[in-house]
Design goal:
By secondary structure, the chain is an alpha+beta fold. 17% of the residues lie in helices and 42% in strands.
């Protein structure tokens, strides 16, 4: 008795479905095995940007090249950088930038800076500057006066004043202490020739005390 062609076709279709299902399960098993490989090790990882996030997905650290370096963000508002560097950006849990490492290389020279921020402006920074000719210009530590957190970023930048600086500028070593207006009031300096002096200045910038006295002068 000849076989029913319809019955034969249905049987072959069932076999094909079983075969396809088996292949799919095998493929999924391979993928799961690959993704669950214990302790993967990479000798080198080449990326243009790397975001480090919390378990809830909040970005806390960004490592990026110049082209993918993120703009500063504070209280949900994005601002434009004067110069876009490569480096690191640190964020709090609300997404506000709270510091970073910036490496800038432009025709005018190179600047490398490590900074930590107050809520609306830079708080403290380490910086080196190299001129367009490749010669070092300055390196130092700067601590700024804090501006109340309710002041907007652009207004805070106008009110920003340096209170403390420890720097080597053109090989003159200095410690500068300023008042709330940013005016230097005490200067401790050893210049490039080896001369050392301490100066106390009034609010108008006049030297009112100097040691040794021979160093007293009006700036």
């Amino acid at each position: 008795m000849p076989h029913d062609p319809t019955h034969r076709l249905l049987r072959e279709m069932r076999l094909l479905r079983l075969y396809a299902g088996a292949l799919t399960l095998a493929f999924i098993a391979v993928l799961l095995t690959a993704f669950k490989a214990p302790d993967p090790h990479f000798q080198r990882l080449s990326v243009e940007r790397l975001d480090i996030v919390d378990a809830d997905g909040a970005t806390r650290v960004v490592l990026a090249n110049q082209q993918r370096f993120p703009p500063p963000m504070l209280n949900g508002e994005t601002f434009k950088r004067a110069v876009t560097p490569a480096g690191l950006v640190f964020y709090d849990r609300k997404g506000n930038e709270v510091g970073g490492l910036a490496l800038t290389d432009v025709e005018a020279g190179k600047v490398s800076a490590l900074a930590f921020d107050n809520p609306n402006m830079d708080a403290i920074g380490l910086m080196t500057r190299i001129g367009a000719d490749g010669e070092p210009i300055s390196s130092g530590l700067q601590i700024n006066q804090a501006v109340p957190s309710h002041v907007k970023v652009l207004d805070a930048a106008k009110q920003a004043t340096r209170r403390i600086a420890v720097q080597n500028q053109h090989n003159d070593a200095e410690i500068l202490l300023a008042d709330a207006r940013g005016k230097d009031r005490i200067r401790l300096r050893v210049d490039r020739t080896g001369d050392a002096r301490i100066e106390v200045l009034d609010a108008d910038g006049r030297v009112v005390f100097s040691a040794p006295e021979a160093a007293a002068r009006t700036p």
